[in-house]
Amino acid sequence: MVTMNRLSVKEPDDDSPLLPEAVEASATTIVFHRQKLITTTDPGHFFLSRRDNLAFSLVLLFGCYSAILIPAYFPLDREASVSDDYPQPKDLVLLNQSALLLLGPCQRHWCLNHLKPLACSTGLLDIPVFVQQDMLKPWDLPPPLGLQGSEQHLALALASLPQPGLPPSLSREGSCRRCVVVGNGGILHGSHLGSHIDQYDIIIRLNNAPVPGFKRDAGSRTTIRLMYPEGAPHSPNEYQKTTMVALVVFKSLDLDWLTSVITKTPLSFWSKLWFWREVVDDIPLRPENYRILHPEIIHKTGQVLQTYTLKQGNMIPTLGASAVVMALQLCDQVSLAGFGYDMQHPQTRLHYYETLRMGAMKAQVVHDISAEKLFLRDLVVAGAVTDLTGAL
């Protein structure tokens, strides 16, 4: 135990002053204690000055804005963030079957010969693919099943197209050709079919389905991108290896948009208000690389789907089903990749390029997805088309 004795200072008996050494020591001690008190209680040592506080706030604010804006202007590679779940192909059997299909020779008129057993085959043959000048005639139905009421808009759009009809490179009179229609379904995610898809003669894609960042599963080339204005990709990179854009007309204003994009004449502010989402003003393609999908493709596809559904009235098919019917007009052999929505499993991936789940499809009421799946399944069973991803 340590005992501290009480320290006392005895005043001198006489009135003599302290020695100079004592006075100096006493003064030094007092100053020391005052400095210690200031050091431990002065709030200025705990808080920044106004100038330092302002500088620190500006640095913090700049850091927050950078964290938000940099990813927006310089997005990360979506393949790294979305597709790395499958470092290996998720179905080697399907991948091997796809490889074997490409190793074999192209079979002339394969689709036509295998469509004959189907009851709906007559409605799927000899449909014009693109609208051209000599097809100007009265239309019985409005868009998208016809062009009734859009004749003037159509005339202006066709006038801006140097080659509105079917180009010689897509004519069936040429050599045997293989088509692949690349759907947007999540079943394509992790398939590793990209290198196979790029080997097809004609590669058809839908709306804004991305290519850069997803080459491993979806390939890199595009022969025809089938789309409407609101579905057109905004990034110029999506058009780098694109041969043709084919417009699907859902309203007269869609034709005005096409004319605007080709002629580089901006649409009016009032016209843009009628699109249900922002549309792109410019596409880095030449005028000869545009076409207008013939509405008979949409109409005939809808008529075929009517036999698979209980709904009454004109059916509006998805772009996917319409693209398959278009491919049947262009190619001897047709393959599908990324088709087949699995509505029984709402937590599965809806699209190959995002994490949105299948349950989101229940909110849409325009298309009959179940009828389309039955139709496409019949095409697969008949051997008219090949399902590369196995969801049909």
UniProtKB/TrEMBL annotation:
<keyword id="KW-1015">Disulfide bond</keyword>
<keyword id="KW-0808">Transferase</keyword>
<dbReference type="GO" id="GO:0006629">
    <property type="term" value="P:lipid metabolic process"/>
</dbReference>
<comment type="function">
    <text>Transfers the sialyl group (N-acetyl-alpha-neuraminyl or NeuAc) from CMP-NeuAc to the non-reducing terminal galactose (Gal) of glycosphingolipids forming gangliosides (important molecules involved in the regulation of multiple cellular processes, including cell proliferation and differentiation, apoptosis, embryogenesis, development, and oncogenesis).</text>
</comment>
<dbReference type="GO" id="GO:0000139">
    <property type="term" value="C:Golgi membrane"/>
</dbReference>
<keyword id="KW-0328">Glycosyltransferase</keyword>
<dbReference type="InterPro" id="IPR001675">
    <property type="entry name" value="Glyco_trans_29"/>
</dbReference>
<comment type="similarity">
    <text>Belongs to the glycosyltransferase 29 family.</text>
</comment>
<dbReference type="InterPro" id="IPR038578">
    <property type="entry name" value="GT29-like_sf"/>
</dbReference>
<keyword id="KW-0735">Signal-anchor</keyword>
<keyword id="KW-1133">Transmembrane helix</keyword>
<keyword id="KW-0812">Transmembrane</keyword>
<feature type="transmembrane region" description="Helical">
    <location>
        <begin position="54"/>
        <end position="74"/>
    </location>
</feature>
<protein>
    <recommendedName>
        <fullName>Lactosylceramide alpha-2,3-sialyltransferase</fullName>
        <ecNumber>2.4.3.9</ecNumber>
    </recommendedName>
</protein>
<keyword id="KW-0472">Membrane</keyword>
<dbReference type="GO" id="GO:0047291">
    <property type="term" value="F:lactosylceramide alpha-2,3-sialyltransferase activity"/>
</dbReference>
<dbReference type="InterPro" id="IPR051142">
    <property type="entry name" value="Glycosyltransferase_29"/>
</dbReference>
<keyword id="KW-0325">Glycoprotein</keyword>
<dbReference type="Pfam" id="PF00777">
    <property type="entry name" value="Glyco_transf_29"/>
</dbReference>
<keyword id="KW-0443">Lipid metabolism</keyword>
<keyword id="KW-0333">Golgi apparatus</keyword>
